Each structure stands twice: as C-alpha cells, then as structure tokens.
Amino acid sequence: MYPVSDRFLARLAESHRVATSVQLFTTDGRTLELDHIGGSVTVDRSQAIRRTCSVTCPDPALIPRSPADQLAVYGARLRISRGVYYGDGTSELVPVGLFRLDSVDGDVNEGPVTLTGKDVSAFIADDKFTTPYLASGTVVSAITALVQRSIPAAEIVSTITDIAIGRRTYDVEADPWAACVEIAAAAGADVFVNADGAFTISTLPDLATATPVWDVAAGEGGVYIRASRGMTADSVYNGVLARGENTADNVPPVQALVVDSDVNSPTYWGGPFGRRPWFYSSPTLITTGACTSAAALKLALKRAPNATGDFSSLPNPALEPGDVLRVIHPDDTRELHQVASFSVPLDSGDFPITTISAKEDS
Description:
Layout: H1 6-12, E1 18-25, E2 31-33, E3 38-44, E4 51-57, H2 67-73, E5 77-85, E6 91-106, E7 113-119, H3 121-126, E8 133-135, H4 139-150, E9 156-158, E10 168-170, H5 176-185, E11 190-193, E12 199-202, E13 214-217, E14 224-231, E15 239-246, E16 251-259, E17 277-281, H6 288-302, E18 307-313, E19 324-328, E20 334-345, E21 352-360
Parallel strand pairs: 9-12, 13-19, 15-17
Antiparallel strand pairs: 1-2, 1-5, 3-4, 3-20, 4-7, 5-6, 6-7, 8-10, 11-12, 14-18, 15-16, 18-21, 19-20, 20-21
Helix pairs in contact: 4-5
C-alpha cells in the first residue's frame, strides 16, 4: 500500500470531503491544474499496462483545435491523485497514477470533455523494435535498458534479488514491454508502473505470510459495503512446468515443476481436482532456480480464478495490486484477500475490488 498516515486511513471510514487533483503536463513545458467533474482510475494486475484513466472536464477549451494545440497534447501526461480533506484546512493526497494522454473528446462548444490515458509503460509497449534486439545481463539491467531505450530519464525501482538471464533476441515488431514482463518472470517477479510513475520490479506478496495492510470491516466505523465469493474450475491450473533452453549461451536445458502442494487446497496437485499442468518456456531461464521462480509466478496467476472475491468498500486510493486485506463480514467471519484490481473514482462513487485469492483468517 502506498505510504499514508494513520489519520488518513481512519478518515476513510468517517464522513469526509474527497480531495482530488488532475494535473496536465503539456509537451511545451506547462503544468495545468485541470478542473474536473468526474472520472476514474482503473488498476488491474492482470493487464500488461496496469493503470488506465478517464477524466471528465467541463472546459471545451481542452479540445485541441490547431496544430500547435495538437503538438502540446500528443505526448502530454496526466498525474492524478485522490485523498481527503480533514476539515481543519489541511488535506492529504495520494497519487493514483502518471498517464500518457491518449485521447481528448467532447462537445467543442459546451463540453464536457473526456480525457483518457494509459500509464507510461504504454510508451515502452508502442516503441516496437525496428531491428533485432538482444537482451542480456541480469533481470534488472535488461529491464532498465529496455525501459530507458524509450524513456531515458525513467526511474527504475527494484526490490528483488537480481539474477542473470540467458541472452534473448527479440524480432523486429516485437513488443518491448512484453519483453520486460518475460524477463521479470525469470526472477519470479512482476514489472509495472507504480502510482508515482516509477517502473517497479517486485514479487507478489505471499498471502500465507503477508501482514494485512487494511481491514475492510462491516458495522459501525467500518468501510465494508457488500461482498460476494466465487469459485470456478474454468482455465484453472494447479501446476506449472517452466523450461529454459538457450543455445546462444550454450546452456543445457533446465526445467522445474511447481505445483499446488497445499493438501487443504481445493486444487491440490493429485487431489480430487486432478492434475492440470500449464507450460511456460523462455530462453531467459538458464538455471533451475530461475525456472522455479518463473513457475511459481505463473502458478499464482493460473490458480487465481479458483477462489475469487468481489467486494465494495469506501474508496482507499492508497491500495496496490497484491496488497493483502482482512475482510470482516457482517456475520463476523474473517477472510484474507489479495487485491487483483480496483477502480478509484474521482468523486464519491463506488470502489469495487476484485481479489485473486482468498482464505479464511483466524
């Protein structure tokens, strides 16, 4: 979860006035604070480009009408924040994303105007290779080179134990951001743009050991609104075999099988669910350890549909995908949920959260 004060979290459960900010950074160096009347930021771990936004503004002057206006907009960026007013003249804002402005659309005379954007990993994804590209070195150095190839000043934040990768040549037209995702998997990690706009390499917290960052509780003083639970076997796998074969580095083939080994899990490998393996291969994997890390990462995704939770709470813009929440239902049953996606409104709207896994909490 994005660092916030205890006062901020307590205020979320109280009646409060919402504070929001939308800043437009134009390509000619101006910073404009945009008046806005609505919108939202969607954050989804399952998407390669994790954050997207839509902002509604009342001023039709934002619609570019001349070549100069268009030059100022194409490549412009939006920084969006949401927080709370405390009622004593102070407020606390939390960033929810830095976005490339992709479209501006609306009534040219009366408005409103809708601005949409994707987080800045879209710059990397769109900068397709025009010549074959060789990735090598370590996970962090290879991702850094790919990101800074498109955005030289990009900030890279890594919390992983760095490892070497096998050399990997990407073809013309290949997606450099997809290459970053593949390389991160060699360390069992995700790569994404965080709320501050920094490119981040990190592993998913373990639901079994992670400390919950927020309680979503029903009743007086709580933020719980409603919830549902579901289970499905569709597209669910309980084992992943990750393989690596790299002739460029003259490395012998390596592989590792990671399975759901929890005997209490409904998808336990060899239990009533049966054995349903999924397969992943990449030349970046040159050790058994890297195969194991990649397989564990993919298994977390492939098991995810088995147990899901969808619930709504009062909005908390500080959440991040992967955060572990403690949900306390009206009947006082308790569950731990791991956040997969959510949508932050820029008004007083609902705050739906989808989780990738859930288990009972003692």
